[in-house]
């Protein structure tokens, strides 16, 4: 499975591509950070991110995108920009019929380090170790994008089993309710 991990942001947007193998084996294929100047108009910044992501999607053909879910930060403007960048990225994937999954920073940190409260240095060190990289990915946005992709590779089988179980439970509930209704 090819997973494109995205750490969305207006100033720096981390992009990565990994491929999962047997078990927990993952190979890094590419990583980059898209930068936009903070003084540029919002629409131009989003366009720059969109263009870069669309190039990645058309070049790498990922099976799925894993994007960081923004749910709380102190700076409202940062949250808004990050959410807007994430929306542009999800839209580009949807146009290509590529599944998009969102993971919280806590989920990503827990998957990669075993500690949902890990700091950036711990995440970077574990990403470097898991992917057997010769050098630490920099800046942190690159490491975070790789961590998102790793997280999805490891969580995807569980998510698929949960979705199948929920679908089966819903079908059994429908059958049970139909049986009850027929018995009246």
Automatic annotation (TrEMBL):
Q: Example GO biological process term?
A: DNA repair
Superkingdom of the organism of origin: Bacteria
* Record: residues binding Mg(2+) 1: 7, 141
Q: Which GO terms describe its molecular function?
A: crossover junction DNA endonuclease activity; DNA binding; magnesium ion binding
Assigned keywords, A-Z: Cytoplasm, DNA damage, DNA recombination, DNA repair, DNA-binding, Endonuclease, Hydrolase, Magnesium, Metal-binding, Nuclease
User: How is the cofactor bound, in the record's words?
Assistant: Binds 2 Mg(2+) ion per subunit.
Q: Which reaction does it catalyse?
A: Endonucleolytic cleavage at a junction such as a reciprocal single-stranded crossover between two homologous DNA duplexes (Holliday junction)
Q: What cofactor does this protein call for?
A: Mg(2+)
The family database entries (NCBIfam families) matched by this protein are listed as: ruvC
Q: Which HAMAP family match?
A: RuvC (MF_00034)
Describe the task this protein carries out: The RuvA-RuvB-RuvC complex processes Holliday junction (HJ) DNA during genetic recombination and DNA repair. Endonuclease that resolves HJ intermediates. Cleaves cruciform DNA by making single-stranded nicks across the HJ at symmetrical positions within the homologous arms, yielding a 5'-phosphate and a 3'-hydroxyl group; requires a central core of homology in the junction. The consensus cleavage sequence is 5'-(A/T)TT(C/G)-3'. Cleavage occurs on the 3'-side of the TT dinucleotide at the point of strand exchange.
This chain belongs to the protein called Crossover junction endodeoxyribonuclease RuvC
Q: Which organism is it from?
A: Mycobacterium intermedium
Gene behind the chain = ruvC
